[in-house]
Amino acid sequence: DAMVIQNPRYQVTQFGKPVTLSCSQTLNHNVMYWYQQKSSQAPKLLFHYYEKDFNNEADTPDNFQSRRPNTSFCFLDIRSPGLGDAAMYLCATSRDRGQGRVNTEAFFGQGTRLTVV
Amino acid sequence: AQSVTQLGSHVSVSEGALVLLRCNYSSSVPPYLFWYVQYPNQGLQLLLKYTSAATLVKGINGFEAEFKKSETSFHLTKPSAHMSDAAEYFCAVSSSGGYQKVTFGTGTKLQVIP
Predict the structure, then answer these.
(1) Which of A39, A82, A103, B110 lies 20 to 30 Å from B44 when distance is taken between CA atoms?
(2) pLDDT in tens, A6-42
(3) Which tens digit of pLDDT belongs to each residue from B4-24?
């Protein structure tokens, strides 16, 4: 009964070749996040969607894009992966029910480990 | 702005000994605080959370944490370490208003020695 599902778990891509990571959720949460976690570091927020509204972090490189075609799915596109983009990419969801009623934690997927060769 | 600081990137304890992982927070508004655990090549699993209710929070796997406003701390403890507790632990903070943009600490790797 996985709630946040990331595919694939492991992805190998060539330097400069576009790659897409996917995330789906069965929680019907209205907020979805993408985090990048490099080896032995804390997860770093890249961007998030509040429903259809895209919110980019100020220091997220332009090389990273995202799409959310519907509530359940969110994609991370890396247009031209470099060696420095090798990392674990974590998708998470949370629910803002409005009027101050918030589910207070984020639910994470198992992550996709990206290798750039 | 909000942040958390985890003291000690690596902690080693003997099996059966007390586990204490330290976290201090900084927040201009009442915070929500979390501890997550991450096993190798896995995602993050929530251990416990503080959301301004009880200051002593009990979580899964026998872990608990106490929110101390006067010390701006939210340390994670477990009375008796088990081998399966070996993992990386992240303290995290988010604001109490609106949806959650979670900011993580740098993590503490817990080693349990048989």
Answers:
(1) A82
(2) 999 999 999 999 999 999 999 988 889 999 999 888 9
(3) 999 999 999 999 999 999 999
Tell me, yes or no, if B101 comes closer than 8 A to chain A by beta carbon: yes
CA A14 from centre of chain: 20
- Find tokens 């996985």 and name the residue: A2
**Cα dihedral sign for B109, B96, B103, B5?**
negative
**Chain B residue at shortest CA distance from A101:** B98
Q: Please give, rounded to a whole number of angstroms, the shortest distance from the CA of A107 to a CA of chain B.
A: 8
Q: Count CB-CB contacts under 10 A for residue B88.
A: 19
| Residue B83, helix vs strand vs coil | helix
**Partners of residue B66 on adjacent β-strands:** B56, B75
Check B43 against A48: CB less than 8 A apart: no
B36 in contact with A, Cβ within 8 Å: yes
Share of chain B above pLDDT 70, in %: 96
Enclosing H/E stretch for B89: strand B87-95
Q: Which residue type is seen at B40?
A: P
Which residue numbers of A have CB closer than 8 Å to B's CBs?
4, 6, 30-31, 33, 40-43, 45, 48, 50, 88, 90, 92, 94-96, 100, 102, 104-111, 113
Find all residues with CB under 8 Å of A16, minimum gap 6, and list them.
Answer: A80, A81, A82
Residue B67 exposure: Cα atoms within 13 Å on the Cβ side:
22
- Distance between B93 CA and the closest CA of chain A, angstroms: 10
